[in-house]
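Running this now, will post back.
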Amino acid sequence: MRKQNYYLIIAIVVGLFACTQKYKSVGEEKVQVTAPFEMPVITIPDFSGCAEFVITDFGAVQGDVTKTSEAIAKAIDEANKVGGGTVVIPDGEWLTGTVHFKSNVNLHLNKGAVLLFNDNPAEYLPPVHTSWEGMECYNYSPLVYAYGCKNVAITGEGELRAKMDLWKTWFPRPSGHMNSLKRLYNMMVDNVPVEDRVMVNDTANMRPQFIQFNRSENVLIEGVKITNSPFWTIHPYLCKNVVLRNLHVYAHGHNNDGVDPEMTQNMLIEDCEFDQGDDAIAVKSGRNQDAWRLITPTRNLVIRNCYVSNGHQLLAVGSEMAGGVENVFMDSCTVADRASMFHLVFLKTNERRGGFIRNIYVSNVSGNYMREGVFGIETDVLYQWRDLVPTVERRLTPISDIYLENVHANNAKFVSRILGQEELPVEDIFLKNVTADTIREERNINVNVINFNQE
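Update: finished.
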């Protein structure tokens, strides 16, 4: 009997070992990028050979938001439990609520798959730790959300699409929304703990981001189409090692930037197409007291071979940039002839931000009609905040070492307009072959600039 028990124990151990061995752990891909500054190697996850978890095996039903949401959550949980796996969205349209990642998970959308996100705000509760225009708070969950995760990805040839019937009614900014913004601003100024800044109520109407990877590392989004968004479309926030590759992004609602890297480091955006209602790529680094508390600049960002069909700016930096922005390189990007942009490159801040902007490199970029100019820097951009709340602490933003080469527009008001501040002029601007065929006003409109170079 004892001998039989011994062999039984051995069989169980061997069986368990075999079960664990059938799952391949997540690998790593090292992405090396050339830039005018020292660019670290970017590490992203490699899920090839990992186990697959098809959502229909967990009870997903087309048209049933509850069953599909639960199935996706169960599949993510199982993939995480085995140390890494791919959650597969099959062909067809799948109505869901929020998707919350765990580490070592790849959300893969097969060709013909549409993951359709419901526009019922209740689907995005309870509130999660997120941000609104650079201020940390607890708000509706982003439609796709990861917090503190490692090795996460969205891949495939399918589509993530947001229903917009409800969200678009939140685009206007009535008094209830503006009062909530004031309340959040004052809580930030007073250093109220983030967990006490709950912004979900009947009138705040603070729309969630579509995709937010928050405090996560080793992030990949590749191949998919992303359509519509309640707010910012792709928002890497306080992340490290991020690659966005071969994406097709379309969102024409209010504040629908394409990508907003915020306090994120070591990032590559390549071979993407953007069709936006706001800025295509808007580089952020937090607002005022929150950014000064977090002390995390956006650093080491490379953008290359991207195409913009519509948008306000091709590349914007700010105005939420109080944590600082440095080492940004954009190369070989094109704006469609039909697009009417404000600028190709626009840097913006104000007296409340502090932080810094330096080492920005843009080369081989072209566009057609600019409603403003080819290149602009403004240091007094406050939008609706100018009269909404006071300046509590005044911190100016040093801006220096900006390099543009081979940047061209067919038609623009100006080639450069730099509106620096007398107390802290903009410094060291280098333009080489930065041109417009037709200049509607003046070639250069520059105030409070030291060492402006133009060839």
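The first helix runs from residue 2 to 21. More later if anyone needs it.
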